[in-house]
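Per your request, structure below.
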C-alpha cells in the first residue's frame, strides 16, 4: 500500500482504522529504510511477519513474478511445484551473471538486492565478532571445503606454475581434499606437542619451505619454491590449537607467499577473530573462509569469504562459472535479520558461558573414572578429555565409546585412538585424527558451539557418565575383555536401561 492507496481505502473503511494501519505500515517501511541506508544488523531482530513481508517485497522485484510477464528464453524462472516456489519465496533466478557470481542479475532485482544486503549484514556480524578491519566479503553458495578450493583456483591464476600448498596439518578430510581438488600438491607442515596441545609453529613452516627445491617465477626474478600459498586453520578439534596466524601472516609477508585462513567456525569465538584481525594488520592474509551453517545456525550450503582488502575476494567471485543458487544466502539474510545485533551478541555470550560450564562438567565426569580434561586452553571452542585408563584397563577401543555415545543419541563428540595410520589423498598420516604423530593417549573431543543449550551440556554429561560407568562395570563384572557391541546391550547389569 502506498499513501494514495491508503487515502482511497479510507473512503471504504473507517478512516481512523486505516490511519492505524498506515502507522503500522510506516513503522515497517522505516525498518526497511534503516536497513537500506545503514546496512547493518538491526539493533533488534525482526519478527516473522516483518521478514515474510520483506521477502515478499524482494521476490516481487524479480521478473518471473512481474504481472503480465511472458518469457521466451531457456531460463525464465519457471517453477513447476508450488511447494518449491514457496520454499524459495518465488525467487527463481539465483544470483550473479554468467561472468560474475557477484554481479547484479538483470532478471532479478530483488534477489540482487537481497545478496547486497546480506553482504553488508554478514560483514557487520564479522566485525562484531572481532574481525573489525574486515572490509570485503563474498558470499558463495558452496560449503567451506569447496570455497577453499575456489580460493586456490583463483590463486593459481595469480601465481602460474605454483602448485604447492604449505598445509599446516589439521586432521579433517575436507581440509586436505580442498587442496587436492584444486589439483594442488599439499606439503604437510608437521605439528608438535606442547604440553597437551598440538601446535604448529613458524619454525616448522620455515623448515618445510627450506626443504623445497628452488623454483624461480615466470620473470626469473624471485624464488617461489613453487608455493601457491599457506593454509592455516583457526577453528579445529582439540587437542590441536588454532594456528598462530599473526606470526604465519608475518612469515607470508616476508616470503611473498599468499595466506589463506580456514576459519570454518571461528566467527563465534572472539579470540579467533581478534587474531585474524591482528594478522591482517601485521602480515599477509589474502582471504579468510568461514561456514554459514557453523557460525550462523542455518542449513549447510554456504561459505563467506572475508578480507581486509577486496582483491582476492573479487577474484574468487569472478572465477565462479555461471550463476549460483541464492537459497543459502536467503537463509542467511533472513537469519541475520531475525537475530539482529542483540540476538547475535547474546548467542556469542551464551556460548562463552556454556563453554566454561561444559568443560567443568566434563572434567567432573572424567575425574570419576581416573581421566582428566586435556589442557587445551588456546582452543576456544573444542576441548577433550583423556580416555587413557578406561581404554587400557577395560580393553575397550575408543571407537566403541564413540559408538556407545552415538547409540545414546549423542552426536558431535569424537573418540580418537591417536595411533591410527591412515592414507588420505595419497598422504600417509601417523596418528590420524589427533593432528600429530604419536599423541600420548586416546581421548574424546567435544565442541561448545554457537546455539548449544544447557540441556545439550547436561544430558550429554549424564550419558557420558552412563557410558563410562557401563564400560567399567562390564570389565569388573565379567572380567571379560572382549569387544563390546555398539550399545553394550549384551551385558545386562549396570546399564541404566536395565
Ligand atoms: C567444517 C570444516 C571444514 C569443511 O567444511 P564444509 O562446510 O563441510 O565444506 C573444513 N575445515 C574445517 C576446519 C571445518 O571445521
Amino acid at each position: 500500500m502506498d499513501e494514495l492507496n491508503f487515502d482511497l481505502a479510507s473512503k471504504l473503511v473507517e478512516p481512523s482504522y486505516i490511519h492505524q494501519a498506515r502507522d503500522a505500515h510506516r513503522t515497517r517501511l522505516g525498518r526497511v529504510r534503516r536497513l537500506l541506508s545503514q546496512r547493518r544488523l538491526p539493533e533488534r531482530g525482526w519478527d516473522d511477519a516483518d521478514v515474510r513481508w520483506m521477502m515478499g517485497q524482494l521476490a516481487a522485484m524479480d521478473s518471473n513474478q512481474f504481472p503480465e510477464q511472458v518469457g521466451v528464453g531457456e531460463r525464465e524462472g519457471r517453477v513447476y511445484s508450488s511447494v518449491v516456489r514457496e520454499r524459495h519465496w518465488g525467487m527463481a533466478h539465483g544470483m550473479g551473471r554468467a561472468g560474475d557470481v557477484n554481479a547484479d542479475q538483470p532478471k532479478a532485482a530483488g534477489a540482487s538486492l537481497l545478496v547486497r544486503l546480506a553482504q553488508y549484514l554478514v560483514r557487520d556480524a564479522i566485525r562484531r565478532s572481532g574481525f573489525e578491519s574486515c572490509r570485503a566479503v563474498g558470499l558463495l553458495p558452496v560449503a567451506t571445503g569447496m570455497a577453499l578450493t575456489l580460493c586456490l583456483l583463483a590463486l593459481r591464476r595469480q601465481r602460474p606454475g605454483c602448485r604447492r600448498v604449505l598445509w599446516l596439518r589439521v586432521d579433517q578430510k575436507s581440509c586436505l581434499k580442498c587442496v587436492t581438488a584444486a589439483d594442488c600438491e599439499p606439503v604437510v607442515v608437521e605439528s608438535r606437542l606442547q604440553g597437551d596441545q598440538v601446535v604448529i609453529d613458524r619454525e616448522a613452516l620455515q623448515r618445510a619451505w627450506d626443504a623445497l627445491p628452488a623454483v624461480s617465477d615466470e620473470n626469473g626474478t624471485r624464488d617461489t619454491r613453487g608455493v601457491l600459498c599457506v593454509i592455516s586453520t583457526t577453528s579445529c578439534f582439540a587437542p590441536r590449537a588454532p594456528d598462530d596466524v599473526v606470526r604465519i601472516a608475518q612469515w607470508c609477508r616476508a616470503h611473498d607467499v599468499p595466506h589463506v585462513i580456514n576459519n570454518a567456525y571461528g566467527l563465534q569465538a572472539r579470540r579467533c577473530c581478534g587474531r585474524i584481525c591482528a594478522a591482517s594488520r601485521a602480515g599477509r592474509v589474502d582471504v579468510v573462509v568461514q561456514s554459514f551453517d557453523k557460525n550462523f545456525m542455518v542449513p549447510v550450503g554456504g561459505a563467506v569469504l572475508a578480507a581486509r582488502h577486496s582483491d582476492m575476494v573479487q577474484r574468487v567471485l569472478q572465477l565462479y562459472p555461471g550463476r549460483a543458487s541464492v537459497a543459502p544466502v536467503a537463509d542467511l539474510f533472513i537469519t541475520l535479520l531475525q537475530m539482529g545485533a542483540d540476538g547475535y551478541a547474546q548467542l556469542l555470550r551464551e556460548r562463552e558461558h556454556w563453554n566454561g560450564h561444559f568443560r567443568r562438567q566434563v572434567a567432573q565426569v572424567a575425574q570419576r573414572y581416573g581421566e582428566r580434561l586435556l589442557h587445551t586452553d588456546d582452543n576456544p571452542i573444542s576441548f577433550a578429555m583423556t580416555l587413557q585408563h578406561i581404554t587400557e584397563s577395560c580393553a575397550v577401543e575408543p571407537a566403541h565409546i564413540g559408538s556407545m555415545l552415538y547409540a545414546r543419541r549423542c552426536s558431535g563428540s569424537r573418540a580418537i585412538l591417536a595411533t591410527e595410520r591412515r592414507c588420505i589423498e595419497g598422504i600417509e598420516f601417523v596418528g590420524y585424527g589427533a593432528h600429530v604423530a604419536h599423541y600420548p593417549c586416546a581421548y574424546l573431543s567435544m565442541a561448545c558451539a554457537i546455539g548449544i543449550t544447557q540441556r545439550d551440556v547436561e544430558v550429554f554429561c549424564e550419558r557420558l557418565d552412563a557410558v563410562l560407568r557401563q564400560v567399567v562395570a562390564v570389565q569388573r563384572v565379567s572380567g571379560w575383555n572382549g569387544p563390546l557391541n555398539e550399545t553394550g546391550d549384551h551385558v545386562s547389569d549396570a546399564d541404566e536401561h536395565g
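The first helix runs from residue 3 to 9.

Regards,
D.
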